[in-house]
Every structure is written in C-alpha cells, then in structure tokens.
C-alpha cells in the first residue's frame, strides 16, 4: 500500500520538478549584465580571469572606461581611428620575425630560453608569422586595405595595458603565471 | 565478568521499527536542504532549474529502466530523487540542460541500474555521473568561467583553482568563517559549509550515515594537508582551505557514506575514510585535477570490497 503511495508521490514530484526546470531554464537564464562583472580571456598561453567590475567600480580601483577602452561606446563622436595610435608603415610586407615588432621584456624567456614564440602565442604553421595582416587582424580593424599597419594584436594590447598599469601602480600581477592559468 | 549480559534477545514475533530505505533517502534529502537553500539564495532561479531538472530526470531514467527491465518500479524509494539532488548540488548553476540530463542518465543507468539497482552498485552513482561529465566536458566545471556573470561581494576565485594555478598567496585572504558561511564559489549546494555540517551531523545522530567514515575522511584530509604544508608552506595550503572548500564537506557527509559502495565494519570504515582523505589531498596537491574529491572516492570505492575483508573475530569460534 505504502509502496504504491510512494511511487505516486515520486512520479508527481518528478513531473512538477520537470516543469519547474523547464520554466527556470526558459524564463530565467543567467543574464549577461550590461557592464561585465568578470571576463575570461581564452588564449593559447592559458586563460585569464579579469575582474572587470573590481577595476571599474568606485569601491574597487575606480578606473574610468577610457583608461582602458579606446572610446566610449555610448558616444560615437569619441571614436578614435586605428591610425591615431597605430602608425602605418611604408612597407607592405609582413615582418618575418616576431622581434621585428615586439620587444622581449623580462617576462619572456626567463624560465626557458629555448622556448619558441609559438609555444605560447598563436602563430602560423611552423611558428612563422602570417603572410597577410588579415590573418591576425580583423579586416574592419585595418584602415587602408592592402597597406601594412603597425597594429598590435589584441593580446599585445592587453598585455601592455595591464602590465604597464600594474607596474605604474606597483600593484597587481605582471608575470605570465600570475595571470594565465598555465596548462598542467 | 561472566555475569555481563552481552545480548538480550527476545523471541518472535518481532516488531518493525518503521525505518525503511524510503525514510532514509528522504531524510538525507532533508539534511541536504540547508546547504541547498543557501545555494539557491546565492545563485537564484538558474540554480533551481538545474536542481529541478536533475531530480526529475533522475526519476524518469530510473522509471524507464524499470520498464525496460520489467521490474517493479523502484522510484518510490526516493533513491533516484536523492541521486539527482546530490548530483545537481555539485554542479554550477549555469550547467546546460543537456549536460544535466546526460549526467543523470549516467548516474542512474550506468552508475546504478546496470549493476542491478540499489544496493548492487560498486561505485557511488552520483560520482560516476560527475566523473564522466568532468572528463567529457571539463570546461563546464570551471567555476570561474561558469559564474562569470554573477556579482558576488566576496573573493571571486574558485579557491582550489586559485590555489592550484596561482599558489598559496592567492588565497591568503580567505578565512575559515567566510568559507564555512558560503562566501566562495563552487557547486550549487557545496559551498555552505555550515549547512553541510549541520545536515551531516543530523544524519549521523539519526543513524542514517556512519560517523567513522566521515571523521576518518576529514582527519585524512587534515593530516595529509598538514604534512604537505610542513614540507613546503609556500607551495601547499594548510588543512583549513582543503577542509572547507571544494567538495570536501559534501563528500565527507553525503558521498563517501553511500551504503552500497562503503564498508560496514569498524576498522574498514576508518581505513576507507582515511584513504579517501589522503587520496583527495594527493590529487589536489600533485595531481592535475583541481579538486580530487570525486576521483578519490571513486578510487577507494574500488578498493572497498578488499578493505571490508577485515572483519571482527567471530564470537565463540573455537577453531
């Protein structure tokens, strides 16, 4: 008698919870906030968790949007052209060595001088630089198609932004393994 | 000494005290409720969705299996619901619906039913589901990634991941009280340490779970973590972090004590619990996984039949 009652209770409970589950998944998904709380940058050297709200809020580090971002998204008039920062070059050739554009700072090669750039950074086949700008940069990011620009790739921009600010304020991580979740 | 009464045995008819597997399972669910409610408050409706879907589909999977194998429906005993509940409590609130349904399928069908149902499973069914999902879709269990849109007013790194990737210095700001009160990220029902302890102690007092396993497990964690800490305090965290973060308390009170996959004798229970504790810390400190609880319990589940060979000497035996 009790077995039959227990069975009914379990089935009724399952049906109700199934409906509750569907409603919750359909109507109440986790909302993406207008201003990011945290951001996870995924890259070859290991993902990086960036605490956006801590950096931007007054109770945190109190940075303004333009301290990091090129322009305010709400104000199109403040948009800056890429070339205002990234100087175009005469040459149309893509540099063949990473070090032609990027300076190696103390964060690189400190543990293993034999480590190749491609071990951590996304490069073309054989660890070579790409043949065209578009293989690293979005076409819309490059002003004057067909003209080689001295553009930073996104990771270089982020590295420079983060590390320089941390060094200037003598706070926050500056070494690779302090930000990147290195693959084990 | 010879006058001491060791057993008082009366003759039949015997009176059943009313306890049953059903009662036990619903009491375990009741005990898990405190930590669960804390998780629901913390994570909101998405967490309720995960919990509801998991419990419901676990019951459905068992019912379907009962039909296929033409056995009397067993969902009434509450074990499927309990499996679904414990499984969901270990998940992040952002777990996709298909992963929840797949997970409960693995828990109920592969973890339990193919071994003949309740009592026949050599491994904890919840952990079979968790282990397979953690290996198949490990990114879903990256709590830092999963909870990226939740705005907490406390330290936002998953403590064990921070410890693993950035060292002891990254978790120095965490206090035991904060961890116990749920100010940490993790599974829906595994972060509120006070709730888990209260629920676990209730189960022990009521006799639904064995204190020997829980206590020896926690002691195994403490001693092993302490030894690592003594060996290198800059590389390894002390017992407090390991006790109160990750799945430790949930594992100690709700997972390691699962009937079918744990020993029944006193000494084996102590060995079993301590071995899980030691293995958990070994995986956390020198293994690749952030939290070793799931794999540690599964591994020692495997050794359970051998450990349980250690039995007390039979009374009155002359040869």
Would you give an account of this structure?
The complex is a heterodimer of chains A (184) and B (319). By secondary structure, chain A is mainly α. Chain A is 32% helix and 3% strand. In chain A, strands 1-2 form a two-stranded antiparallel ribbon. Chain B has 319 residues and is mostly helical. Chain B folds into two domains: 120 residues, no CATH class; 149 residues, no CATH class. Chain B has 14 helices and no strands. In chain B, helix 9 runs parallel beside helix 12 and helix 10 packs antiparallel against helix 12. Chain B is globular. The model of chain B has no long low-confidence stretch (mean pLDDT 91).
Query: Can you summarize the main beta sheet of chain B?
Result: none
| Average pLDDT taken over every residue of chain B | 91
Order of helices and strands of chain B: HHHHHHHHHHHHHH
Q: Indicate the multimeric state.
A: heterodimer
**pLDDT under 50 segments of chain A (min length 5)?**
87-93, 144-148
Proportion in β-strands of chain B: under 5%
SS element count, helices of chain A: 6
Please bin the fraction of helical residues of chain A.
25-40%
Listing every helix as H and every strand as E from the N terminus to the C terminus, the arrangement of chain A reads: HEEHHHHH
Give me the side-by-side strand order of the main sheet of chain A.
1-2
User: Structural class of the helices, strands and pairings of chain A?
Assistant: mainly alpha
Approximately what portion of the residues of chain A adopt beta-strand conformation?
A: under 5%
Distance between the termini of chain B: 23 Å
